[in-house]
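Predict the 3D structure for this chain.
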Amino acid sequence: MSGQVLYHRSWYRAVDVVTSSLSCSLLTKHPDIEDLYLVNLDPQILELLQEAKHLQKMNLEVNDATLALCQQEAHIMSIRDSCVSLLLFVITYRLANAIVNAR
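Done. Predicted structure below.
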């Protein structure tokens, strides 16, 4: 059995584990810093999307859930970017407010 086939089989089995992280909250509190939030998009999701594209180019099967996720990639990235922008706005607001209150 070729290495490519073995990799594909193990990848296929790991898809459910990776996609389960989509049910986690996208914004999470920092564990050590009060009032600090983080964008919690599992990097394995991005890796899964890239791998699925490569597997499709090699004419290997990609399951329906992963195909659906690939179709939503732009939407997922847009939501992530919006969350990052929101957090940057909150940080900027807090800094500006601290400067004004310090006067």
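Helices lie at 3-19, 43-57, 64-71, 73-102.
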